[in-house]
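Course assignment 3, question 2. Fill in each field.
Student: A.L.
Task: Predict the tertiary structure for the chain below.
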Amino acid sequence: MNTQNLNKLIEKAANVVGKTFPLYAFVTSNPLSGYENESFLNATQSATKYFGGSLFPEASAYQQAWDTGEIDEAVLTEILMTYGFMESPAFYLKELETYKPSAEENPNHHLDAMMVKWLTAFLDEGTTEWEMPNRTEGFYQAWRKLAKYDKQIHIKSIDEIPASASEALTKAISGFATEDYLQIFEYHIAALAGWTGYIKYRVDNQTEWQQKYPISLLEYLAVRLWIAQQTNAQIIAPVKNNQELLETIKLQYVWLKAWEKSLQDKLVLKLDKKQITVEEVIQADGVPDAQLVFCIDTRSELIRRHIEAQGNYETFGFAGFFGIAADYKDLSTGMLRKSCPPIVPSSYIISEDCDEGKAAEISSFKKIVADQKFKDYFFRRLKNMLPSAFGYVEGAGLIYGASLVARSLFPGKLYKSEQKNTPNHESFCHTKIAHAHHEPSSIAGIPLAEKVTIVKSAFAVMGWQKFAPLVVFAGHGSHSKNNPFGSSLDCGACAASPGRNNARMLASLANLPEVREVLAKDFDLVIPENTVFIGAEHNTTTEDIVLFDSHVPTSHHKLLKNLKADLAKVQSNTIKERRGLTKQEIDFVHKKANNWAETRPEWGLAKNAGFIIGPRSLSKNVDLESRCFLQSYDWKTDDSGNLLEAIMQGPMTVTQWINNHYYFSTVDTDRFGGGSKTTHNVTGHFGVVQGNGGDLKIGIPLQSVKAADNKMHHQPLRLSVIIEAPLERISAILDKNPKLQSLIANEWIYLMVIDPLKDAKPKMYVSAKDSCSATANTDNLVQEKVK
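Answer field:
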């Protein structure tokens, strides 16, 4: 088989694993994304073939939901009967409790361990002092030149190994039937899903490390299968036919659907109790004192509700990259980092430019950064070099001991001190934008038409009607110490980076007089002269909202002062509700943020279960328990449906990734989650292994989804999407997008529609029978209101 055909087969086989994102950009994604063209039930059965276990919640999770009333008995009974289960819910719960999946020994444990050894050495991104030689030649050639020194392989000469990866792979599978090749590749790719997922990430993203030290799944399989032959490891997957497991999966699936339907019913009742309009809460002049735009992130829901309750404020939800497909050039490191969704190519580069008259400030900032870089480099060298390592540990032990005690006993005070003394470049810099692959020069670096498009698109998607004197674009980020998965708590829409830079960039563009002039002249979008846009960051650990207000004119200082005072109250109230506290709430979250031993600095997007696409009137003043993503959208300002299509293709798809990442991390923390933080070891700067080796962890750690080892916090439920828009418009969009049709028809997400042209009641959207397509026929919509 030639290399081209091998690559095609391997590409197909690679669908058994998702991408493993690196720790510094740990984007949540569906680990079973390759199965999305199958129904959710069939996909879990297919995945079980290679991953083992069950991909549904355990009986204890259903028991917990049953005991707390989260599963409605009438709903469960009805769905059980629909699927042919005629006994009582208690009977079937007992059956689930008695089922214990058999623990199967991994026949290729030694093969996996050997591959991890080679992958760790080759993929290292700067942690080792002595690098694996010949890495620039690629994984296969680098391994081939060193293989004879591996005592586990038992060869004497490099000549015993085929000269190319394709030759080695072809030789390794030559004794098997052609129809078995795909299964062989799937089996061995799935065996180390974390490592192979990271290879997929490197290849697809062509990272700096990949360009310097290339690796491919063909090379991985060539090495693995050649070693497998030499060591008599198992080449082809064992045949499994566990009928008991299939019946259990079916029963688990029914309980899951009942749990999800119960949640949907409660959500609809909440939204249906009181439908209010934004105009009802805005003061008589019709203009709020300030408008704040937050990411659609579930953690924004609570703080938005408290802001609206605090004063004459209006809030919106918009994907946290604020519509700017860009990379951000860090002023401290000079490194480019993606700051838009991973599925979106970066068109721009956002960077920093010194404000006029602030040369001294930026010079001081750069000196502090340079000094810290040298200290980090110097101490790292002392720790890692053989001549100095032991002496360094002995000599520095007292200093590190004192630091450890301080961080253990006074983390909150250290946090406040560090925040106060950390240079804030936003106070003397402004953002600038340029096309990708071009050096940014100034904010004039892209054509006026493109600036106008960025600003216009943002307001159009949100259905913006009026402008307050202050408009705040608030990106979000997180703060935690000693947390390898810390980037997963930042903004997923910014590829696990904080959203502050995109927020500041959009504010800068919207403040430009020439942009406003074109918006008014060509698009009838009039921004008042007294409207000022500012960027901000919502710290989701401490609930603090930092306003980057150094460029706000004196005419708005009073408004700004009032807003800051209200946001301080909002921070306190939000913490109290989210954390269940009654006093000293600020000190509490500061300690959580800065405690090196804290395993749960915040819960992230745990408990996410819903996505509401529509005007704020749908959910205003409704306590959604931080379980819903909130995307602002007004169907009346979107005659073509293009804006809704973009939301469904982008944010709706991404939130499905997030939801499924949390789902699978919860139902199987070892295989699809991050394992326990207590035994994490960072490897190569990019990943985490449990203990001293094994597969890379691909998901959310146990402490981020469970309150205890045997008590869930996140409820593993599939995403329920509610859209307010005419049914015909939604059906037309689905007709054009087979991928979106598939997600709904195959039950990776649920879709409920509120048709404002009919009775404006949420109803479940159902695809046409025997087809993934959806039509405008109202027969496709369940006519009974979701109760």
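Instructor remarks: Residues 276-284, 769-787 have pLDDT under 50 and may be disordered. The two ends are 58 Å apart (CA to CA).
Grade: pending
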